[in-house]
Amino acid sequence: MGNVATTPEDWEREEARSQQQVTERSSSAAADSPSRLVIATRDVEEGEEELRHTPSITELKEHMDAMRLVQKQKFARGVLFFSNFVSFVFAILLVYYGATGRTNVDLSQPREALSAVGEEIKQLGTLVVEDASEFVQHGYIKNIINPYQLVLALGVALMILSTVGLLGTSCPARRVGKELLFSYFSTVLVFVCILMWGAVMCFQYQTETQRLLEREVDLHWRHLRPLLPGTKKDILATIEDNSNLVLSGAFCVVSAVIMTVGLWSSSKVMGHYFTMAKVMHSCSVSGIFSGIVLVSLSVYYGAKGIGGQWAPGITAVSGVAIVCLSMLGIYGTRARCLLAMVLHLVFVCVLSLFVSVSGVFVIAYPHVVSDLVHDNWRRIAHDYTGVNEKHFRHEVADNLFLLGSASVLFGVLLLVTASASFATCMEIYHRKRAVVLNKIEICAGNGNGNGNGNKN
């Protein structure tokens, strides 16, 4: 234990010692205080600056969404470039194959073309060769005997399409790149519709194609027998093999799926809002031209008396409706009118539903029309001579299926237009909402400023 001050002298000595220690501490603190004060002040300022620039949760989320969007666009651009490069190489192969094979068979001179099919054709009689020469002049037979022209044309078209896609992918941020990508998008959309149409035809028309070919073989067997190896039974057995149709339909489906990936990629690279706005404008313009064509056809039908009394009227009403609907879409897009776009969306959806349901009904219930033909066959036979009832019913069923499938396909295209109209509606809504919120913030700021001024 320390000494305890008990006398007045001891108290004075303790006070003097404590004052001396306080003085020493204050002098040492005064010597170190400038640097320490500066460091402390700097630390406080840096801490406040970090707190001031620390992003909020909303800002971090927006930054992450922007980075994720950039990554998705880069991925879509890579997919689009790869698909167009592969299709370009495939187009080169098609052009080479079509150009080299096209010279093997020359159909400008039917006799030489038939001689190129086989040496035994030279031993046939003159009458048979003349009949076969006339048969070859038919356009479909030309394409069957010499398909290389079709292969060459397809290769050139695919090469041009792939080139446009590659050029658009190389500069998607520029205006020219976006226009090229939209041209690619529109063409691929048409190709997808054609491929789906071809797949439906291949899968559905297997029995119809077999029946048609059997009938053609029966009618022209006298001219075909010298040209074909084997008997009639062998030829019919070959016709009944529908594996080529199945493979062709599968090829159309796979190609349509691959091209759909290209559609998504090009739309993602351009931006979905930009793509839908362009689709909306393009569909409206093409709809105006289509409506004008329908009105012109109705006038032609009325002048020539084609289709009775109902065909010109229905055609004219359809043309006028399409023109009005397209003009409503163009007005809503240009004027940024939300009401006009909502009306356009509703009308397009109703029209798409009506067309699709009509197409499905025609495809699913062909027996209704077949029974109608059977009940009115006497009246029909009076107008169509030389055709039996069975053949006529088959022809009507085929035409109805074509009409139904075309209606369903048209309904799908209308759904694309409806999606573009919906995207345009959402864009107009968000822009108007942002303008309204900005005005509210400005008014709220002015109100707070006036209130503070009145208080002062």
Automatic annotation (TrEMBL):
<feature type="transmembrane region" description="Helical">
    <location>
        <begin position="338"/>
        <end position="365"/>
    </location>
</feature>
<feature type="transmembrane region" description="Helical">
    <location>
        <begin position="181"/>
        <end position="206"/>
    </location>
</feature>
<dbReference type="GO" id="GO:0016020">
    <property type="term" value="C:membrane"/>
</dbReference>
<keyword id="KW-0472">Membrane</keyword>
<feature type="transmembrane region" description="Helical">
    <location>
        <begin position="400"/>
        <end position="423"/>
    </location>
</feature>
<feature type="transmembrane region" description="Helical">
    <location>
        <begin position="285"/>
        <end position="303"/>
    </location>
</feature>
<keyword id="KW-0812">Transmembrane</keyword>
<keyword id="KW-1133">Transmembrane helix</keyword>
<feature type="transmembrane region" description="Helical">
    <location>
        <begin position="309"/>
        <end position="331"/>
    </location>
</feature>
<protein>
    <recommendedName>
        <fullName>Transmembrane protein</fullName>
    </recommendedName>
</protein>
<feature type="compositionally biased region" description="Low complexity">
    <location>
        <begin position="26"/>
        <end position="35"/>
    </location>
</feature>
<feature type="transmembrane region" description="Helical">
    <location>
        <begin position="245"/>
        <end position="264"/>
    </location>
</feature>
<feature type="region of interest" description="Disordered">
    <location>
        <begin position="1"/>
        <end position="36"/>
    </location>
</feature>
<feature type="transmembrane region" description="Helical">
    <location>
        <begin position="148"/>
        <end position="169"/>
    </location>
</feature>
<dbReference type="InterPro" id="IPR018499">
    <property type="entry name" value="Tetraspanin/Peripherin"/>
</dbReference>
<feature type="transmembrane region" description="Helical">
    <location>
        <begin position="78"/>
        <end position="99"/>
    </location>
</feature>
<dbReference type="Pfam" id="PF00335">
    <property type="entry name" value="Tetraspanin"/>
</dbReference>
